[in-house]
Design brief:
The protein is α/β, with parallel strands linked by helices and 324 residues long. It contains 13 helices and twelve strands. It binds (2R)-2,3-dihydroxypropanoic acid (DGY).
Length: 324
Protein backbone atom coordinates (compact mmCIF):
# COMPACT_ATOMS: atom_id res chain seq x y z
CA UNK A 1 0.00 0.00 0.00
CA UNK A 2 1.24 3.48 -0.85
CA UNK A 3 2.62 5.52 2.04
CA UNK A 4 2.53 8.76 0.04
CA UNK A 5 0.35 11.61 1.17
CA UNK A 6 -2.98 11.24 -0.60
CA UNK A 7 -4.86 14.23 -1.98
CA UNK A 8 -8.14 14.49 -3.85
CA UNK A 9 -8.71 17.07 -6.61
CA UNK A 10 -12.43 17.71 -6.91
CA UNK A 11 -12.12 18.82 -10.58
CA UNK A 12 -9.57 18.47 -13.39
CA UNK A 13 -6.74 21.02 -13.15
CA UNK A 14 -4.29 22.29 -15.77
CA UNK A 15 -2.26 19.25 -16.88
CA UNK A 16 1.12 20.71 -15.96
CA UNK A 17 0.00 21.24 -12.35
CA UNK A 18 -1.62 17.81 -12.05
CA UNK A 19 1.69 16.31 -13.24
CA UNK A 20 3.67 18.34 -10.69
CA UNK A 21 1.35 17.26 -7.89
CA UNK A 22 1.72 13.63 -8.95
CA UNK A 23 5.48 13.88 -8.40
CA UNK A 24 4.95 14.53 -4.68
CA UNK A 25 1.54 13.11 -3.83
CA UNK A 26 -0.76 10.22 -4.50
CA UNK A 27 -3.37 12.17 -6.45
CA UNK A 28 -6.97 11.02 -6.77
CA UNK A 29 -8.59 12.87 -9.64
CA UNK A 30 -12.25 13.28 -10.41
CA UNK A 31 -11.93 12.21 -14.03
CA UNK A 32 -15.58 12.96 -14.86
CA UNK A 33 -14.89 16.61 -13.98
CA UNK A 34 -18.43 17.08 -12.66
CA UNK A 35 -19.16 18.60 -9.22
CA UNK A 36 -18.68 15.89 -6.59
CA UNK A 37 -21.73 14.73 -4.65
CA UNK A 38 -21.91 15.25 -0.88
CA UNK A 39 -21.41 11.49 -0.44
CA UNK A 40 -18.28 11.51 -2.64
CA UNK A 41 -16.85 14.47 -0.73
CA UNK A 42 -17.50 12.75 2.59
CA UNK A 43 -15.76 9.66 1.31
CA UNK A 44 -12.79 11.78 0.21
CA UNK A 45 -12.61 13.33 3.70
CA UNK A 46 -12.53 9.84 5.20
CA UNK A 47 -9.87 8.48 2.86
CA UNK A 48 -7.50 11.30 1.80
CA UNK A 49 -5.03 13.44 3.74
CA UNK A 50 -5.87 16.57 1.78
CA UNK A 51 -8.91 17.63 -0.23
CA UNK A 52 -8.75 20.36 -2.89
CA UNK A 53 -12.21 21.76 -3.62
CA UNK A 54 -13.32 24.55 -5.93
CA UNK A 55 -16.21 26.98 -5.89
CA UNK A 56 -18.47 24.20 -7.26
CA UNK A 57 -18.13 22.10 -4.09
CA UNK A 58 -20.56 23.07 -1.33
CA UNK A 59 -18.71 21.95 1.78
CA UNK A 60 -21.33 22.66 4.40
CA UNK A 61 -21.57 21.38 7.96
CA UNK A 62 -23.35 18.23 6.75
CA UNK A 63 -20.46 17.33 4.45
CA UNK A 64 -17.79 18.27 6.97
CA UNK A 65 -19.38 16.38 9.86
CA UNK A 66 -17.41 13.21 9.08
CA UNK A 67 -16.45 11.24 12.19
CA UNK A 68 -12.63 11.17 12.51
CA UNK A 69 -11.80 12.49 9.02
CA UNK A 70 -8.45 11.52 7.57
CA UNK A 71 -8.34 14.88 5.79
CA UNK A 72 -6.44 17.57 7.67
CA UNK A 73 -6.44 20.32 5.03
CA UNK A 74 -8.93 21.72 2.54
CA UNK A 75 -6.72 23.53 0.04
CA UNK A 76 -9.24 25.47 -2.02
CA UNK A 77 -8.49 26.18 -5.69
CA UNK A 78 -9.82 29.74 -5.70
CA UNK A 79 -9.75 32.88 -3.62
CA UNK A 80 -13.44 32.90 -2.55
CA UNK A 81 -14.29 30.38 0.14
CA UNK A 82 -17.91 31.06 1.05
CA UNK A 83 -18.75 27.55 -0.20
CA UNK A 84 -16.82 26.12 2.76
CA UNK A 85 -18.28 26.27 6.27
CA UNK A 86 -15.17 27.45 8.11
CA UNK A 87 -16.63 26.85 11.59
CA UNK A 88 -17.52 23.28 10.68
CA UNK A 89 -14.01 22.76 9.29
CA UNK A 90 -12.50 24.10 12.52
CA UNK A 91 -14.74 21.81 14.58
CA UNK A 92 -13.46 18.85 12.56
CA UNK A 93 -9.86 20.00 13.07
CA UNK A 94 -9.38 20.74 9.36
CA UNK A 95 -7.25 23.66 8.13
CA UNK A 96 -8.58 25.68 5.16
CA UNK A 97 -6.48 27.65 2.64
CA UNK A 98 -7.27 29.67 -0.51
CA UNK A 99 -5.39 31.22 -3.47
CA UNK A 100 -5.28 35.02 -3.15
CA UNK A 101 -3.20 37.42 -5.30
CA UNK A 102 -2.64 35.20 -8.32
CA UNK A 103 -6.05 35.85 -9.90
CA UNK A 104 -6.31 39.55 -9.08
CA UNK A 105 -5.12 40.92 -12.44
CA UNK A 106 -7.11 38.55 -14.64
CA UNK A 107 -10.32 39.14 -12.69
CA UNK A 108 -9.77 42.90 -12.92
CA UNK A 109 -9.13 42.54 -16.66
CA UNK A 110 -12.42 40.68 -17.10
CA UNK A 111 -14.22 43.38 -15.12
CA UNK A 112 -12.94 45.94 -17.62
CA UNK A 113 -13.99 43.64 -20.46
CA UNK A 114 -17.55 43.62 -19.09
CA UNK A 115 -17.57 47.39 -18.61
CA UNK A 116 -16.54 47.85 -22.23
CA UNK A 117 -18.78 45.10 -23.58
CA UNK A 118 -21.91 46.40 -21.85
CA UNK A 119 -21.26 50.04 -22.69
CA UNK A 120 -20.34 49.49 -26.33
CA UNK A 121 -22.70 46.74 -27.48
CA UNK A 122 -19.87 44.25 -28.05
CA UNK A 123 -22.00 41.14 -27.52
CA UNK A 124 -25.13 42.43 -29.23
CA UNK A 125 -23.10 43.65 -32.21
CA UNK A 126 -21.45 40.24 -32.52
CA UNK A 127 -24.84 38.47 -32.34
CA UNK A 128 -26.36 40.78 -34.94
CA UNK A 129 -23.51 40.29 -37.38
CA UNK A 130 -23.52 36.49 -37.05
CA UNK A 131 -27.29 36.45 -37.59
CA UNK A 132 -26.73 38.24 -40.92
CA UNK A 133 -28.63 41.29 -39.71
CA UNK A 134 -25.97 43.92 -40.34
CA UNK A 135 -27.05 46.25 -43.11
CA UNK A 136 -23.87 48.35 -42.94
CA UNK A 137 -22.60 51.40 -41.13
CA UNK A 138 -25.02 54.12 -40.12
CA UNK A 139 -24.80 56.95 -37.62
CA UNK A 140 -27.56 55.61 -35.37
CA UNK A 141 -26.48 52.00 -35.19
CA UNK A 142 -26.02 50.51 -31.65
CA UNK A 143 -25.43 53.79 -29.86
CA UNK A 144 -23.46 52.78 -26.80
CA UNK A 145 -22.31 54.94 -23.94
CA UNK A 146 -18.86 56.40 -23.56
CA UNK A 147 -16.69 54.75 -20.90
CA UNK A 148 -13.80 57.21 -20.76
CA UNK A 149 -14.29 59.89 -18.15
CA UNK A 150 -17.36 58.27 -16.54
CA UNK A 151 -17.75 57.50 -12.84
CA UNK A 152 -17.15 53.95 -11.64
CA UNK A 153 -18.36 52.91 -8.18
CA UNK A 154 -16.52 49.94 -6.66
CA UNK A 155 -18.38 48.08 -3.92
CA UNK A 156 -15.52 46.33 -2.13
CA UNK A 157 -12.01 47.66 -2.32
CA UNK A 158 -9.70 44.73 -1.67
CA UNK A 159 -7.08 43.36 -4.04
CA UNK A 160 -9.37 43.04 -7.06
CA UNK A 161 -11.19 46.33 -6.43
CA UNK A 162 -7.83 48.11 -6.28
CA UNK A 163 -6.66 46.46 -9.52
CA UNK A 164 -9.87 47.59 -11.25
CA UNK A 165 -9.41 51.12 -9.89
CA UNK A 166 -5.93 51.31 -11.43
CA UNK A 167 -7.14 50.12 -14.81
CA UNK A 168 -10.20 52.35 -14.87
CA UNK A 169 -8.47 55.44 -13.53
CA UNK A 170 -5.17 55.28 -15.38
CA UNK A 171 -6.37 53.54 -18.52
CA UNK A 172 -9.78 55.09 -19.08
CA UNK A 173 -9.62 58.34 -17.12
CA UNK A 174 -12.62 57.26 -15.05
CA UNK A 175 -13.51 58.90 -11.79
CA UNK A 176 -13.40 56.03 -9.28
CA UNK A 177 -15.49 56.06 -6.07
CA UNK A 178 -15.13 53.21 -3.58
CA UNK A 179 -16.86 51.68 -0.59
CA UNK A 180 -15.34 49.17 1.79
CA UNK A 181 -15.73 48.37 5.50
CA UNK A 182 -11.98 49.01 5.68
CA UNK A 183 -11.61 52.08 3.45
CA UNK A 184 -8.20 53.19 2.22
CA UNK A 185 -6.49 55.85 4.33
CA UNK A 186 -6.51 59.38 2.85
CA UNK A 187 -2.96 59.08 1.56
CA UNK A 188 -3.57 55.74 -0.16
CA UNK A 189 -6.85 57.00 -1.64
CA UNK A 190 -4.97 60.01 -3.01
CA UNK A 191 -2.21 57.81 -4.45
CA UNK A 192 -4.76 55.54 -6.10
CA UNK A 193 -6.82 58.50 -7.25
CA UNK A 194 -10.05 57.22 -5.68
CA UNK A 195 -12.73 58.90 -3.59
CA UNK A 196 -14.20 57.11 -0.58
CA UNK A 197 -18.01 57.08 -0.52
CA UNK A 198 -19.95 57.85 2.65
CA UNK A 199 -22.21 54.81 2.20
CA UNK A 200 -23.78 52.55 -0.43
CA UNK A 201 -26.48 55.08 -1.35
CA UNK A 202 -23.79 57.70 -1.97
CA UNK A 203 -21.96 55.30 -4.31
CA UNK A 204 -25.10 54.18 -6.15
CA UNK A 205 -26.40 57.71 -6.67
CA UNK A 206 -23.13 59.02 -8.11
CA UNK A 207 -21.91 56.17 -10.34
CA UNK A 208 -22.45 55.49 -14.03
CA UNK A 209 -21.04 51.99 -13.57
CA UNK A 210 -21.33 50.02 -10.34
CA UNK A 211 -19.00 47.04 -10.01
CA UNK A 212 -19.09 44.51 -7.16
CA UNK A 213 -15.89 43.24 -5.53
CA UNK A 214 -16.85 42.03 -2.08
CA UNK A 215 -17.31 38.56 -0.61
CA UNK A 216 -20.72 37.08 0.18
CA UNK A 217 -21.46 37.20 3.90
CA UNK A 218 -24.78 37.29 5.76
CA UNK A 219 -24.42 41.09 5.57
CA UNK A 220 -23.70 41.36 1.85
CA UNK A 221 -25.99 38.62 0.51
CA UNK A 222 -28.51 40.22 -1.92
CA UNK A 223 -27.17 43.64 -0.96
CA UNK A 224 -28.13 44.94 -4.41
CA UNK A 225 -31.89 44.64 -4.76
CA UNK A 226 -34.91 46.64 -5.79
CA UNK A 227 -34.31 49.62 -3.50
CA UNK A 228 -30.64 49.80 -4.54
CA UNK A 229 -31.60 49.74 -8.21
CA UNK A 230 -33.95 52.65 -7.52
CA UNK A 231 -31.00 54.58 -6.06
CA UNK A 232 -28.83 54.03 -9.12
CA UNK A 233 -28.58 56.67 -11.83
CA UNK A 234 -31.07 56.14 -14.64
CA UNK A 235 -29.12 54.40 -17.39
CA UNK A 236 -26.44 53.07 -15.03
CA UNK A 237 -24.70 49.74 -15.68
CA UNK A 238 -24.12 46.98 -13.10
CA UNK A 239 -21.07 44.72 -13.33
CA UNK A 240 -20.63 41.62 -11.17
CA UNK A 241 -17.49 39.50 -11.29
CA UNK A 242 -17.59 38.69 -7.55
CA UNK A 243 -20.45 36.41 -6.50
CA UNK A 244 -24.00 36.07 -7.82
CA UNK A 245 -25.54 35.94 -4.35
CA UNK A 246 -24.70 39.63 -3.86
CA UNK A 247 -27.51 40.54 -6.26
CA UNK A 248 -31.25 39.91 -6.21
CA UNK A 249 -31.40 38.56 -9.76
CA UNK A 250 -35.15 38.94 -10.12
CA UNK A 251 -34.92 42.61 -9.08
CA UNK A 252 -32.06 43.04 -11.56
CA UNK A 253 -34.18 41.67 -14.40
CA UNK A 254 -36.95 44.08 -13.37
CA UNK A 255 -34.59 47.07 -13.33
CA UNK A 256 -33.34 46.14 -16.81
CA UNK A 257 -36.82 45.57 -18.22
CA UNK A 258 -38.00 48.93 -16.91
CA UNK A 259 -34.88 50.51 -18.51
CA UNK A 260 -33.87 51.89 -15.12
CA UNK A 261 -30.56 50.16 -15.81
CA UNK A 262 -29.07 50.44 -19.29
CA UNK A 263 -27.24 47.14 -19.07
CA UNK A 264 -25.54 44.59 -16.84
CA UNK A 265 -22.39 42.53 -17.21
CA UNK A 266 -22.42 39.32 -15.20
CA UNK A 267 -19.80 36.64 -14.72
CA UNK A 268 -21.39 35.04 -11.65
CA UNK A 269 -24.87 33.86 -10.64
CA UNK A 270 -26.67 32.99 -7.43
CA UNK A 271 -27.23 29.31 -8.35
CA UNK A 272 -24.49 28.44 -10.83
CA UNK A 273 -24.55 26.99 -13.40
CA UNK A 274 -28.21 28.03 -13.55
CA UNK A 275 -28.72 31.43 -15.19
CA UNK A 276 -32.23 32.85 -14.71
CA UNK A 277 -34.23 32.71 -17.96
CA UNK A 278 -35.45 36.26 -17.40
CA UNK A 279 -31.84 37.51 -17.58
CA UNK A 280 -31.05 35.39 -20.63
CA UNK A 281 -33.99 36.96 -22.43
CA UNK A 282 -32.65 40.50 -22.08
CA UNK A 283 -30.18 41.37 -24.83
CA UNK A 284 -28.61 44.21 -22.86
CA UNK A 285 -27.10 41.77 -20.37
CA UNK A 286 -23.69 40.35 -21.18
CA UNK A 287 -23.53 36.90 -19.60
CA UNK A 288 -20.25 35.08 -19.04
CA UNK A 289 -19.76 31.62 -17.48
CA UNK A 290 -17.65 32.50 -14.39
CA UNK A 291 -14.48 33.27 -16.34
CA UNK A 292 -12.82 35.82 -13.99
CA UNK A 293 -9.69 33.78 -13.37
CA UNK A 294 -9.88 31.76 -16.58
CA UNK A 295 -6.53 32.28 -18.24
CA UNK A 296 -4.01 29.49 -18.62
CA UNK A 297 -1.44 31.52 -16.69
CA UNK A 298 -3.74 32.26 -13.79
CA UNK A 299 -5.25 28.78 -13.53
CA UNK A 300 -1.72 27.35 -13.39
CA UNK A 301 -0.71 29.95 -10.80
CA UNK A 302 -3.76 29.02 -8.71
CA UNK A 303 -2.74 25.38 -8.86
CA UNK A 304 0.82 26.26 -7.83
CA UNK A 305 -0.54 28.30 -4.94
CA UNK A 306 -2.57 25.30 -3.75
CA UNK A 307 0.53 23.13 -4.06
CA UNK A 308 2.54 25.58 -1.97
CA UNK A 309 -0.13 25.45 0.75
CA UNK A 310 -0.16 21.65 0.68
CA UNK A 311 3.62 21.35 0.65
CA UNK A 312 4.05 23.69 3.61
CA UNK A 313 1.22 22.12 5.58
CA UNK A 314 2.43 18.55 5.10
CA UNK A 315 5.99 19.69 5.98
CA UNK A 316 4.59 20.70 9.37
CA UNK A 317 4.68 24.44 8.62
CA UNK A 318 1.98 27.10 8.59
CA UNK A 319 0.46 27.24 5.09
CA UNK A 320 0.77 30.77 3.68
CA UNK A 321 -2.88 31.26 2.75
CA UNK A 322 -4.65 29.85 5.77
CA UNK A 323 -8.19 31.18 6.25
CA UNK A 324 -9.24 28.75 9.01
C1 LIG B 1 -12.43 32.44 -7.06
O1 LIG B 1 -11.22 32.21 -7.03
O2 LIG B 1 -13.07 32.74 -6.05
C2 LIG B 1 -13.09 32.33 -8.38
O3 LIG B 1 -14.34 32.92 -8.39
C3 LIG B 1 -13.21 30.87 -8.75
O4 LIG B 1 -13.66 30.20 -7.65
Amino acid sequence: MSSRTRIVLSRRWPGRIEALLEEDYEVWRNDHDQPMSAAAMRQALRRADGFCPTVTDRMDAGVLRVPSPRTRILANFGVGFEHIDLDAARRSGIVVTNTPDVLTDCTADLTMALILATARGVASGDRMLRAGDWAGWRPTHIPGVRVSGKTLGLVGFGRIGRAVARRAGLGFGMRVRVLDPRPPADEEARDLGVEVCADLDDLLETSDFVSLHCPVTPKTERMIGQSQFRRMRPGAILINTARGALVDERALAGALRSKRLAAAGLDVYAREPEVPAELREIGRVVLLPHLGSATQETREAMGMRVKENLDRFFAGEEPPDRVA
